[in-house]
Write a structure and sequence with these properties.
Radius of gyration: 14 Å
CATH class: Mainly Alpha
Helix content: over 70%
Number of domains: 1
CATH superfamily: NusB-like
Length: 144
């Protein structure tokens, strides 16, 4: 697991949170983050993909998440909402990244930025998302 990719996820979470709160233009948010953070410290292309990919596929992501939640997507804590959308996007759009890595990274980010027990919630929901979006990969884990 690359530290640069982990840093890209962390920045993407912060950018998506900012977008949810402010509704600002994504291009401006991406430019701001690229200006504030040295490009050598994270995977810039991965960051851009995550930040642009989540809003581009928002309806699809929310439809994937909705039946797995105990409340509506809109009622989620803003950090949890951004993290779950980010994790669901990564599970859907980046099959080259093992689902366990996606979930673990989201859980670690929830521990840093989320409410006290949000990491457990994020883990449970993304595990269900992984089973739906990557049935072959998750079935192999359950058999093994």
């Amino acid at each position: 697991m690359s530290r640069k990719r982990s840093h890209a996820r962390r920045l993407a979470l912060q950018a998506l949170y900012q977008w949810q709160v402010t509704g600002d233009d994504l291009g401006g948010i991406v430019a701001q983050f690229l200006e504030e953070h040295p490009a050598k410290s994270f995977e810039v292309d991965y960051f851009r993909d995550l930040v642009r990919g989540v809003p581009a596929r928002l309806d699809e992501l929310d439809q994937t998440l909705a039946p797995l939640l105990d409340r509506s997507v809109e009622e989620l804590d803003l950090v949890e909402r951004a993290l779950l959308r980010l994790g669901a996007y990564e599970l859907a759009a980046h099959p080259e990244v093992p689902y366990k890595v996606v979930i673990n990274e989201a859980v670690e980010l929830a521990k840093v930025f989320g409410a006290e027990q949000s990491h457990r919630y994020v883990n449970g929901v993304l595990d269900k998302v992984a089973c739906r979006l990557r049935p072959v990969e998750t079935a192999a884990r359950r058999r093994g």
